[in-house]
Amino acid sequence: MTDVTHTQLFIGGQWQDSLSGEEFSICNPARPDEVVGFAANGNVADIDAACESAAAAFPQWSSLSYQERAAYLHRVAEHLVADAVELEKRISLFTREHGKILQEASIEMRRFGDRFLLCADYAERLEQDEQLQGPPFDTVITRQARGVAALVVPWNWPISILGAKLPQALMAGNTVVIKPSKESALAPALTIGRVAEVLPAGVVNLVTGSSSRIGDPLLTHPLVRTINFTGSVPVGRHVMKMAADNLVPVTLELGGNDAGLILEDAELDADAFRRMYLASFMSSGQICMALKRIYVHRSRYDELVDGLSAVCSQQVVGDGLLPETTMGPVNNRGQYDIVIGMIEQAKRAGAEVRELGQVPDQDLYDRGYFQKPTLVLNPDAALDIVKEEQFGPAVPIIPFDTEEEAIGFANDSEFGLCSSVWTPDRERAMNIARKLEAGYTYLNGHGPLAQDGRAPFGGFKSSGIGRNLGFEGIQAFQEPHAISAPAGWLL
Hints:
By secondary structure, the protein is an alpha/beta fold. It is 39% helix and 22% strand.
């Protein structure tokens, strides 16, 4: 495939080159020697222009009613899928630059607009101010948009994660400057452009480029009034330090090392194993809410290992554009090396490692950033495959003997994003869920296919601060505003 895509910045309602005229290349992780395209490489001056554009658009956008902004969000959702040919090209481009299989790229792109519709549905609820009748005072508590929002999006699920920030920021009344990851910038840039095309100029602005050039200038820009970041813990800490310069509030979603507890009465049929497989290995395991540690009651350990091994063995690893492929490559060399390092460490420590799945094109597999779906059986808890977030197609399976032990294992982590409990006993499931240190707990499921988009999403501990999605995700982009008067005068 020889098509090469070029994307620009989107500032003030227009596509434009970076002021330096520079670009950076993005390659296909299935074929690292294949250049998929070039994205504009922004600099400090481009960040200034984008922030100034967003600030200029803010007064008009924030003055619209919630119903008026909801109407815009409906138009965005329609526009995203209005041109079927353009949409298919964007999906194919997404697979080529990211590596995920075509089916997943299609779902991520086609469902992006649904996030806008969910936020639009909150218009009536957002209009309702809280009223406190006196004495001593009559008080109305309303909420106001903060201003320019900096939205920083990672490479792993850039469209879905953007959908957890952008419509929420817009519905809240903010204008935005978006910075995607350099590892996956082409299809996200074109998608952001589709959003911006139906909104007033300056409401949505896009700057692509290296974090070393535009990251800190965006985070510390004096016009930025709130920051929403998704990414790694070390970078999240850096974001907080940069935000402190201007006392800017931050929302941080920093990933997790999600534990799933498979109890002795869990229903382990073919469907359950399929759901566990997808929870761990969808998008080659590169999902913050993926099932990353499996703890199973010792009485069901062999059954679970055999069942999950059977599903993994059926997977076809290769180019995500091919219809028979069910798992693509890891997105980039750095992350690939991390995952391989964890697997090799586990092997050296004596853990049984099962690398499963089918490879129809060995030459392609050897050239690209591929790793078969891998199960690491009963590894030592001190190994990286257990302690750290793998963010790749490898998952440990560890037996436990008691419910208390399982809860202890699950909570013994610096992370606290998601968790899951697998049992047909509803009361027991709820009791255990309440003891897990996680922002979201799934019952008899895990990950994206078990996620309720109406619920707030975020984590405890090193998994971050604040929440995306749901009504709370919109409120995160606002500040309360109390208005009081003498009792009997206002209400």
